[in-house]
Write a structure and sequence with these properties.
Elements lengths: L3 E14 L2 E14 L3 E5 L6 H8 L7 E6 L2 E2 L5 H10 L1 E5 L10 H10 L5 H14 L15 H13 L5 E5 L7 H18 L2 E6 L10 E6 L2 E4 L1
Parallel strand pairs: 3-8, 3-9, 6-7, 7-8
Antiparallel strand pairs: 1-2, 1-4, 4-5, 9-10
Helix pairs in contact: 3-4, 3-5, 5-6
Bound molecules: adenosine-5'-diphosphate and magnesium ion (MG).
The site of adenosine-5'-diphosphate (ADP) has 12 residues, from strand 1, strand 2 and helix 1.
Length: about 230
């Protein structure tokens, strides 16, 4: 049997706000095999970001289990979760989330600085990534001095810094025009094909399911294969 990057079983999540509970995900089951691209679609507010945060160990479910490469992340302590995020997962967001006071190269190097690696190796890897993503002429630019497409490339390079096995992408083209969106999709496709990455992308844009090996839809708290 193929190895699983994620195995999600009976996952439920609700938020409690004053005098009210919002049930977002109810008894969700699905799996992500290694080296597959899975896309999850659904309308705004259906729980896509919630699901991604749970898989990324940034939040905890109310019920159910999540296994990442066979290890139950819901049982991990804070240190184990941080290590998983640092070494195995690469996050890409709609709003890029770059640090405004750092230049492109420094932003990309940041996750490397959380490891034991030496500075020169980290810098060279960041420069290599900038070359691959065709932003090598933007080394000293700060985020505000970059276009949206360039900022997202910097964010992708940062996500790849520590050679993650899995890319978690939350509306990665949500702020981009069609040309830049296609560019980002091609980058993700290359990562899957040439570097055997596993990709989980969530988006409200149903047109982006074309790139996926398999797609799901979230509606009314349930996840349905499409
Ligand atoms: N921290 C939170 N506290 C309370 N409600 C939240 C919180 N985060 C998200 N929600 C609610 O949960 C639902 C799902 O949100 P989200 O996962 O962000 O949806 P999506 O990413 O699909 O747009 C929404 O109704 C949202 O308002
Ligand atoms: Mg969202």
């Amino acid at each position: 049997m193929d190895q699983l990057a994620f195995k999600v079983s009976s996952l439920s999540k609700k938020y409690t706000i004053p005098e009210k509970q919002i049930s977002v995900l109810q008894d969700i089951d699905f799996q992500i095999p290694v080296n597959q691209w899975i896309t999850i679609t659904g309308q705004s507010g259906c729980g896509k970001t919630t699901l991604l945060r749970l898989l990324g160990t940034l939040d905890e479910p109310d019920r159910g289990t999540i296994e990442c490469f066979g290890e139950e992340i819901t049982k991990m302590n804070t240190n184990q979760k941080a290590k998983l995020r640092r070494n195995k997962l690469g996050f890409i967001f709609q709003s890029y989330q770059l640090l405004p006071e750092l230049n492109a190269l420094e932003n990309i190097m940041l996750p490397g600085r959380l490891t034991q690696g030496d500075m020169k190796t980290i810098k060279n890897r960041a420069l290599d990534l900038m070359k691959t993503l065709e932003i090598e002429n933007r080394i000293h630019h700060r985020p505000a001095e970059l276009s949206g497409g360039e900022q997202q490339r910097v964010a992708i390079a940062r996500a790849l810094m520590n050679k993650p096995d899995i890319i978690l992408a939350d509306e990665p083209t949500g702020n981009l025009d069609t040309k830049n969106s296609t560019g980002i999709m091609k980058i993700l496709e290359d990562l899957k094909i040439k570097e055997q990455k596993t990709i989980l992308m969530v988006t409200h844009n149903i047109n982006l399911t074309d790139y996926a090996d398999k797609s799901y839809h979230i509606e009314g708290g349930s996840i349905i294969p499409i």
